[in-house]
Amino acid sequence: MTSSDWDPDLYGRFADVRLRPALDLLARVGGALPEGDIVDLGCGSGPVGPALARRFPDRRRVGVDSSHAMLAKAEGTGAYDALTAADIAGWTPERPVALIYSNAALQWLGDHDTLIPALAKKLTSGGTLAVQMPRQNRAPSHRIWTDLVQEHFPGRAAQAARPETADPVEYHRRLSPLGRFDLWETEYFQTLPAAPEGHPVRHFTSATFARPILDRLDEGERVMIEKLYDEAMRAAYPPAADGTVLFPFRRLFFTLDIA
User: Fold this and answer.
1) CB 3.0–4.6 Å: which of 30, 59, 100, 233 could bond 199 by disulfide?
2) Is 55 in contact with 82 (CB distance < 8 Å)?
3) What is the arithmetic mean of pLDDT over 152-165?
4) 91-119 pLDDT tens trace
5) Which residues are CB-contacts of 84 (< 8 A; sequence separation ≥ 6)?
């Protein structure tokens, strides 16, 4: 049982659903940015790269991610001038940047009270930090993965890294003194396509939230948990007659403009 790298193909199976909040975040970034690079922090396979290229065609665009598999996919988009393999918690630019854009990445890192103000300090005067993070851990789609593994294999789930997003008031408390701060939350009602086997929500979550939990199991244990999870998802998110599923998903957004 070892930690696996991200699977770009599995993650990209729901590319259209995952891209919508990323574009919603980008739409809230102001146009009057100062001089400096555009950084896609936790760029993954680069799904937002083309949109960043269209929005900022004359800027140097840098993608940063810890997954070599994801970066290889991002390179294929042709949207970045540079791609950097780095732990995004410790990433430091060569010089202050105009925009740090981070979509669905920072929830994997702890100590947001320290991390996010530190990111703000990497911006040039007038720069923007734009962040989106899932806030779904209490929903059945996420909670049941942890509950099932804890029930059948006590301690395993606790050993796995889990994404965490603080309550919105905590981000407001810590970040609003640093500049112009805008905070909002959106619940997306996503229609997931029918899956050839298993519940669509399992396929959606196993590429992200459940990945480190499933890494703690051997193949037989994983098959058992996935079967139990599918049964629980059929009750929580009943499929329509055509096999599609309406899947509510909550996400937290904020932008911080530094004076």
Assistant:
1) 233
2) no
3) 86
4) 999 999 999 999 999 999 989 999 999 99
5) 62, 63, 64, 65, 91
Exposure letters 152-182 (e unless 16+ CB within 10 A, then b): ebeebbeebebbebbeeeebeebbeebbebe
Residue 84: which H helix or E strand, with range? Answer: strand 82-85
Total count of residues recorded for the chain: 259
Q: What SS3 class is residue 196?
A: coil
DSSP string, 174-187: HHGGGEEEEEEEEE
* CB under 8 A, 24+ apart: contacts of 26-31: 26/51, 26/52, 26/55, 26/101, 26/130, 28/130, 28/182, 28/253, 28/255, 29/55, 29/99, 29/101, 29/128, 29/130, 29/255, 30/128, 30/257
Q: What is the pLDDT of residue 157?
A: 82
- Domain segments of the chain as ranges: 8-258
Question: Residues 52, 61: contact at Cβ < 8 Å?
Answer: yes
Give residue-wise pLDDT tens across range 24-59: 999 999 888 999 999 999 999 999 999 999 999 999
Q: Which residue has 């890494």 as its token pair?
A: 215
Helix (H, G, I), strand (E, B) or coil at 188: strand
pLDDT tens figures, 191-209: 999 999 999 999 999 989 9
**Which neighbouring-strand residues pair with 80?**
none
Both tokens of residue 209? 């939230």
CATH architecture label of 8-258:
3-Layer(aba) Sandwich (3.40)
Q: What is the pLDDT of residue 1?
A: 47
